[in-house]
Design brief:
eight-stranded parallel barrel; alpha/beta; 23 strands; 673 residues; seven-stranded antiparallel sheet; 14 helices; disordered C terminus
Length: 673
């Protein structure tokens, strides 16, 4: 399967160099050196693909005289995976071929418990009729409404296709602060308004039906569901209805909802605040009346389109939106940014690493989402979190682009689904890695003035992709014995269980810890995938991956670490960052990664196994490093099939159990970058 052998790589470490003059890499702290691990026996599907590729290559070579090269163009050079063209985008290649070329070990490095390590226990229970559904594909991205006009959002942008496909039929929401301040939809090519108040440097963006059709083609190719937003601040119900009609024509059933405005609770923020779009007369009563007028206009053109509102972080506005007359079908939209105190008013809400990993932050997440769920339950509507991130503070700070934000994001993405949130979209940007919003899970190459077509994932983007790889199932109760370890379990129809463990200890100071997992039934085997990095401040090389070849920033971290590892790396396609070549390059030592690489693509059944699992036992032990999120796939003794990727979430609004009363209040700040 490979053009040149390479030793298996310990996750989170760079590959050993074949040059004897270079010093060898030290073993990973969590286990033995990768070079001492056995190679993994390929599963039947991967062996078959490998054999097929070899047969095809042999058939080509042995088919007799070949045409004169001068009579036709030469074939594209083969890349590091035989039979796959050089610089092939990741989405166009069977993941099994890439996984096989990575030559992953059979046993996950460092997963075997070590003597004298500290121990913590996790106990799984059986599912019950009251447990929440876990929808494969409910994790997604939120973009600004003005991004609809960005020509890079199209079906032939290979990196965006790879990213959306890695999220497994996600939800893509268009909204944010631009919706009510700079977003102008027209189906008749009207001129852009000139009387809107704009902050310095801002401009109004025109969006047309052609833009919707372009984005819809991307959504169809990637199996993505879409939520759009209508401008409420510039009161125009008929324009919102026109947007809904053209959106339905473009997206069809992939249009799952229309938001009316964005965070109306922040429309009036004082006369000196640049985000204010309404005067002091704006209040909840006026909002409810205008919301109903918008819905009636929309439903005259697109009956039964789900209305999503208020996209707010304040309890009274949830009640008003959910109780507004004539809004059914309806979804209650929550926005949450727990560490958005950019000044010094509340120290526990400042964007610091300490707060990012503190149990108090997770408790405040639970409190706010539980209160929103109670409102949704009361009105018998689904709860959607249409905009979230760890912080909305502008610019960089302690947590932007870091492992701390990534482990938080992984925990949050499954946590809120255990609290009955049907969809959750992390607020994102198409801006460049250097100079764009630093909390965005994805970013492009280029500059703020001239962003490029290549896209990479930051650390929190890798976390989203890891959680999105969990198949559909039912949330299963899981208990841990420590406040710095969280556990969420999803039981699947085949009898297997995905267990998500997030360890919030400091990876720079704490060593591995043995986790004893007790299951309600016998276990056959356990596979593992892990998000990790060298420290809480570690980052993923998204900016390096998005740099075009020959850029002033120079080669990527992966190229610097493994410049001999991937044939053809020097001729990388300037339009594709997420190529097969890059997928085969281990990340630099200490960088944030999933299993030592970038975008997680290994199916659960093909991941390395946890060492020492005894088939038939009802418990097992695994050693986990500090500062990690680990997904364990626990296969039962009588599992009927491997976990698979079912359809996208239905969003039918089935009410969830009531939230526990007496939950303490949490305070969050406005979202939007």
């Amino acid at each position: 399967m490979r053009t040149s052998p390479r030793p298996p790589v310990t996750p989170g470490r760079t590959a050993p160099s074949p040059n004897p003059s270079r010093s060898s890499q030290a073993p990973a702290r969590s286990g033995s050196s990768a070079s001492s691990l056995p190679h993994r026996t390929l599963p039947v599907r991967r062996r078959a693909l490998a054999i097929l590729s070899t047969v095809l290559l042999c058939a080509t070579a042995c088919a007799g005289p070949q045409p004169d090269p001068s009579a036709s163009s030469a074939p594209e050079p083969t890349g590091p995976v035989p039979g796959v063209a050089r610089n092939a985008p990741l989405h166009a290649v069977d993941p099994g071929l890439v996984v096989a070329a990575r030559d992953i070990p059979e046993t996950y490095p460092g997963s075997a418990p070590r003597t004298n390590d500290p121990t913590v226990r996790v106990t799984l229970s059986r599912t019950s009729p009251g447990d929440e559904d876990y929808q494969h594909g409910s994790v997604g991205l939120s973009l600004e409404s003005t991004d609809l006009a960005d020509p890079r959002l199209e079906k032939d942008n290979h990196d965006l296709v790879s990213i959306l496909q890695s999220l497994h039929e996600p939800t893509l929401r268009f909204g944010g602060n631009s919706t009510d301040r700079r977003f102008f939809f027209t189906s008749t090519d009207e001129p852009i308004p000139t009387d809107w108040p704009l902050a310095k440097g801002e401009k109004i963006t025109k969006v047309t039906p052609a833009d919707l059709e372009r984005v819809a083609a991307l959504a169809r190719r990637t199996g993505t569901s879409v939520i759009l937003s209508a401008n409420l601040a510039r009161y125009d119900p008929d324009r919102a209805a026109d947007l809904a009609a053209h959106a339905r024509a473009a997206f069809g059933d992939r249009l799952v909802g229309l938001m009316i405005g964005n965070e109306p609770n922040g429309f009036h923020r004082g006369s000196d605040d640049p985000l204010s779009v309404k005067g002091p007369e704006w209040n909840r009563t006026v909002y409810a009346r205008q919301l109903t007028a918008y819905v009636r206009a929309v439903h005259r053109k697109v009956p039964h389109l789900r209305i999503v509102a208020p996209g707010a972080y304040s309890d009274p506005w949830w009640e008003v939106a959910a109780g507004a007359p004539g809004t059914a079908p309806f979804a209650l939209a929550l926005h949450q940014y727990p560490l958005s105190e950019c000044g010094t008013r509340w120290t526990w809400q400042k964007p610091t690493v300490t707060n990012a990993v503190a149990p108090q932050t997770r408790e405040r997440v639970d409190a706010l989402v539980s209160r929103a769920r109670s409102v949704a339950d009361e009105h018998r509507v689904p709860l959607w979190i249409t905009e979230t991130s760890l912080s909305s503070c502008p610019g960089g700070n302690q947590i932007t682009e870091t492992l701390a934000a990534a482990v938080y994001q992984a925990d949050y993405s499954v946590r809120v689904q255990a609290l009955a949130a049907e969809r959750v979209t992390a607020h994102s940007s198409l801006g460049p890695c250097r100079g764009g919003p630093p909390m965005s899970p994805l970013c492009s190459d280029g500059t703020v003035g001239s962003p490029g077509e290549r896209f990479g994932l930051r650390a929190n983007g890798l976390a989203l992709a890891l959680i999105a790889s969990i198949p559909q199932g039912t949330m299963t109760p899981a208990r841990t014995g420590s406040e710095d370890l969280t556990a969420f379990a999803v039981t699947h129809a085949d009898g297997s269980t995905s267990l998500v463990l997030s360890d919030f200890r400091d990876p720079a100071t704490a060593g591995p810890r043995t986790t004893m997992v007790t299951t309600p039934g016998p276990v056959q085997r356990v596979t593992q995938s892990q998000l990790r990095g060298g420290s809480w401040r570690a980052t993923a090389p998204a900016g390096d991956a998005a740099d075009a070849p020959g850029s002033p920033e120079g080669p990527s971290a992966g190229e610097r670490a493994t410049d001999d590892a991937a044939p053809g790396a020097a001729s990388s396609d300037p339009r594709v960052a997420l190529s097969v070549e890059n997928a085969l390059r281990p990340t630099a030592d200490g960088a944030v990664s999933v299993d030592g690489y970038g975008l997680p693509i290994t199916p659960p059944a093909d991941r390395p196994e946890v060492a020492g699992v005894r088939p038939g036992a009802t418990s097992f032990a695994v050693s986990l490093p500090a500062g990690t999120t680990t997904v364990l796939t626990i296969e039962t003794k009588h599992a009927t099939a491997r976990p698979s990727a079912p359809a996208s979430p239905s969003g039918d609004g089935t009410p969830a159990p009531k939230a526990t009363s007496g939950t303490p209040r949490a305070t969050t700040c406005s979202g939007g970058q």
